[in-house]
């Protein structure tokens, strides 16, 4: 059941990322960097997700002074594929031109990113390297996710500007609200997921006691 939430979280996360890209109002600093690299250097947005993930895995390994988390690359690989898949589907379905439609698309994307990230992080299986970096900085600085996430966003914002990524009002909103939304969803999703996982792990025992002949 844990792996179901893991995949579900990544699917929601990548859908949110694709919505913000399609909104044309600006994406998160990290995604703006990916799009900027894709436009100016080549390769797909998802491909750059995987490449940057490799770099971040090395950084995380250095900060934690432990072996690189190979499973983090697996998550980044799945995320990269998810982003390219959703972008392909949304490009044929949604091309917002009116201002309020762009705002709606961006709003859906921002909430989906926070929700999806919170869901898959609670599976504690293999965080995306940038999310692992968020948790590492939170631990090292003894702050909350809001501050650590916002700090990381500011660093990638400067890099996105250098590579002419889609920086706009949406980027500013992501920097201001991204960590806040994630901080809101973390305890909420933890309560729900823990309850479901606990129920699913105890159900077989209950059934066995109820039907001892099986």
From TrEMBL:
<feature type="transmembrane region" description="Helical">
    <location>
        <begin position="33"/>
        <end position="58"/>
    </location>
</feature>
<keyword id="KW-0812">Transmembrane</keyword>
<keyword id="KW-0472">Membrane</keyword>
<feature type="transmembrane region" description="Helical">
    <location>
        <begin position="144"/>
        <end position="163"/>
    </location>
</feature>
<keyword id="KW-1133">Transmembrane helix</keyword>
<dbReference type="InterPro" id="IPR038750">
    <property type="entry name" value="YczE/YyaS-like"/>
</dbReference>
<feature type="transmembrane region" description="Helical">
    <location>
        <begin position="169"/>
        <end position="186"/>
    </location>
</feature>
<feature type="transmembrane region" description="Helical">
    <location>
        <begin position="70"/>
        <end position="89"/>
    </location>
</feature>
<dbReference type="Pfam" id="PF19700">
    <property type="entry name" value="DUF6198"/>
</dbReference>
<protein>
    <recommendedName>
        <fullName>YitT family protein</fullName>
    </recommendedName>
</protein>
<feature type="transmembrane region" description="Helical">
    <location>
        <begin position="101"/>
        <end position="123"/>
    </location>
</feature>
């Amino acid at each position: 059941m844990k792996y179901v939430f893991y995949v579900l979280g990544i699917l929601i996360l990548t859908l949110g990322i694709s919505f913000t890209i399609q909104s044309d109002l600006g994406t998160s600093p990290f995604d703006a960097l990916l799009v900027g690299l894709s436009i100016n250097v080549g390769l797909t947005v998802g491909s750059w997700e995987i490449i940057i993930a490799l770099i971040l895995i090395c950084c995380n390994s250095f900060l934690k002074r432990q072996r690189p988390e190979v499973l983090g690359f697996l998550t980044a690989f799945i995320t990269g594929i998810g982003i390219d898949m959703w972008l392909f589907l949304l490009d044929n379905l949604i091309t917002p031109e009116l201002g309020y439609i762009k705002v709606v698309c961006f709003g859906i994307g921002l909430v989906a990113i926070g929700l999806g990230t919170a869901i898959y992080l609670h599976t504690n299986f293999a965080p995306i390297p940038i999310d692992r970096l968020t948790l590492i900085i939170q631990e090292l600085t003894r702050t909350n996710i809001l501050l650590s996430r916002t700090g990381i966003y500011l660093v990638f914002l400067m890099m996105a500007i250098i590579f002419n990524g889609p920086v706009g009002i949406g980027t500013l909103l992501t920097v201001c609200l991204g960590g806040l939304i994630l901080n809101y969803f973390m305890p909420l999703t933890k309560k729900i997921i823990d309850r479901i996982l606990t129920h699913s792990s105890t159900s077989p025992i209950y059934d066995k006691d109820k039907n001892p002949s099986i």
